[in-house]
TrEMBL record:
One of its GO terms (molecular function) is alpha-amylase activity. Residues 13-418 form the Glycosyl hydrolase family 13 catalytic domain. SUPFAM superfamilies: (Trans)glycosidases, Glycosyl hydrolase domain. This is Alpha-glucosidase. Keywords: Glycosidase, Hydrolase. Transmembrane segments: none annotated. It comes from Affinibrenneria salicis. GO terms for biological process: oligosaccharide catabolic process. It comes from the Bacteria.
Length: 558
């Protein structure tokens, strides 16, 4: 039943609370998104990935769901959702929803019941363990947002597991009743017309049932990986889900898979195994991790990035890649991987070029098409995200100096990606008429959609052209990936090859002007320029290219 439309699609990620507010309460909503669909259409994206909009106390901005069947009223009603879906489909835009089934909110009915007794019908919906003889937690695992991954509940005299906040108890996937409740809920949304799911932390759903303690040297907040990532039954569960749900619909799936290498990713995405279409891997997100994990002040190295990307391009074989620079959990791409001042425009276009000509399905995070950069907040009080607040507390507690704390938070906070979408240069950025739930970026006066749409050289139109190229040339979808000049210090070059079609992509990661010498087999190929981020790049590929700061070139011949 299913076709491979997701291979040639480009996906635009919408963080609903920060996209467009239609009723002045300062929170983006479904009606606001519906109003802005023509903008996404103009960009050329085929699919929207909508972050969670279900009923939720919003401890982790919707990744804590209290009712899978209800829409959080701050985003609108079920009718608003249906009208979003209909309007999107009329524009030929598909919508995939976030599926958060590793955990629920602690306010979910199942959990409330589960807390009450060891014998009722919800008793085994979550992962409960007895205290150790001294009363302490069953394992030494830390949780993502600080503190132990176990929380004690007196009414059961037991601990429950939560890999994320304590308000996000982990579901017990060993229990078949839980799995069938989840499948039922998935069928409900697919039957209502949605086009697929992005599956939150799906690599964590199967726990090693011996619950092994973590190595003492593991970064505490990720120390649960040893017992929870790519666990013994994860593939069995996904195959069951595929058979019971996914295979019945023409839908796409992308699994978010922390702590998953390319060999494991192949298991998730090999079509012959009937699990998922693609996964979000994290290797390129880890290149600038430091002693304390994500919140470091380290800059990535281009050669590491090239190695990682190349490995993923080459090793998925029958599987399929998803391609992304950023999302609602990551800082802004142009700050992290490009140059966010003098060469903000050039380097944002360069990063887009590098990613979108690769093999896989590209994801654009809202505002990336405007080259939004990290947010220079003046004070800690402006940060809202549970991860940032817990890192701040933890760093203070272990005595790190303020300069390091402020810098690493500026560089890595998830709130960098969560400030309201700047639609125009007015005081409220065209986002709301009220007070926004999180402060605007101080950049909005200069960096906004209206300005980008009015400038034919803007990053927005560069993305639009990349999407057009993907649609026009089959080599971008199906071509082999081959790295060229693999030791170049500053330039990442690769080719895509499909039968007689050759696409050559050359991207500079430096603000210096440098020479780039093509390998002999390409030097006289006479390939023609398809796209560049400078107005006057050579129309035909030259054996020696003078690369300007962050220049990005696409040449093609057939
Ligand atoms: O993120 C999962 C995940 O891997 C996080 O630990 C991620 O590494 C972290 O946010 C990066 O700093 C997913 C969602 O995308 C995230 O927004 C949720 O908070 C989390 O799951 C819990 O549902
Ligand atoms: Ca609103």
């Amino acid at each position: 039943m299913s076709t491979n439309w997701w291979k040639s699609s480009v996906i635009y990620q919408v963080y609903p609370q920060s996209f467009k507010d239609s009723n002045g309460d300062g929170i983006g909503d479904l009606a606001g998104l519906t109003e802005k669909l023509p903008y996404i259409k103009k960009l050329g994206a085929d699919v929207i990935w909508l972050n969670p909009i279900y009923e939720s106390p919003l401890v982790d901005n919707g990744y804590d769901i209290s009712d899978y069947y209800k829409i959080n009223p701050v985003y609108g009603s079920l009718d608003d959702f249906q009208s979003l879906l209909t309007t999107a489909h009329d524009l030929n835009i598909k919508i995939i929803m976030d599926l958060v089934v590793n955990h629920t909110s602690d306010r979910h009915f199942w959990f409330q019941q589960s807390c009450q007794s060891k014998t009722n019908q919800y008793a085994d919906f979550y992962i409960w363990k007895d205290p150790l003889p001294d009363g302490s937690a069953p394992t030494n695992w830390g949780s993502t947002f600080g503190g132990s991954a176990w929380e004690y509940v007196a009414s059961r005299n037991q601990y429950y597991l939560h890999l994320f906040a304590k308000e996000q108890p982990d579901l017990n996937w060993e229990n078949p009743v839980v799995r069938h409740e989840i499948y039922k809920m998935m069928r409900h949304w697919l039957a209502s017309g949605i086009d697929g799911f992005r599956m939150d932390v799906i690599s964590l759903i199967s726990k090693y049932q011996d619950f092994p303690n973590a190595d003492k040297n593991a970064v505490y907040s990720k120390s649960y990986y040893v017992g929870a990532s790519n666990g013994p039954r994860v593939h069995e569960f996904l195959q069951e889900m595929n058979q019971e749900v996914l295979s019945q619909y023409d839908c796409m799936t992308v699994g978010e898979t922390p702590n998953t290498n390319s060999a494991q990713a192949l298991l998730y995405t090999d079509p012959g195994r009937h699990e998922l279409n693609m996964v979000f891997q994290f290797d390129h997100m880890h290149l600038d991790y430091g002693k304390y994990g994500k919140f470091s002040d380290i800059r990535f190295k281009m050669s590491d990035l090239r190695d990682t990307m190349t490995e993923w391009q080459q090793s998925l074989d029958k599987g399929w890649n998803s391609l992304y620079w950023s999302n609602h959990d990551q800082p802004r791409a142009v700050t992290r991987f490009g140059h966010d001042r003098e060469y903000r425009i050039e380097s944002a276009k360069m990063l887009a070029t590098l990613l979108h000509m690769m093999k896989g399905t590209p994801y654009i995070y809202q505002g990336e098409e405007l080259a939004m950069r990290n947010v220079a907040f003046n004070s800690m009080a402006q940060y809202k995200d549970i991860e940032t607040l817990s890192v701040y507390e933890n760093f203070k507690r272990i005595g790190l100096d303020d300069e390091y704390i402020n810098k690493s938070i500026y560089l890595k906070s998830r709130d960098n990606a969560r400030t309201p979408m700047p639609w125009d240069a007015t005081e409220k950025s065209g986002f709301t008429t009220g007070e926004p739930w999180i402060d605007f970026s101080p950049d909005n006066g200069i960096i906004n959609a209206e300005a980008c749409l009015a400038d034919s050289n803007s990053v927005f139109y560069h993305y639009q052209k990349l999407i057009e190229i993907r649609k026009k040339y089959p080599v971008v979808i199906d071509g082999e990936y081959q790295l060229i000049n693999e030791n170049d210090s500053d330039v990442y070059g690769y080719v895509r090859v499909l039968n007689d079609e050759v696409m050559i992509v050359i991207c500079s990661f430096t603000e210096n002007k440098i020479n780039y010498i093509l390998p002999a087999w390409l030097a006289n190929s006479q390939a023609a320029l398809l796209l560049s981020n400078y107005p006057d790049s050579p129309k035909t590929l030259e054996p020696k290219v003078e690369m300007r700061p962050y220049e990005a070139l696409i040449y093609y011949k057939s």
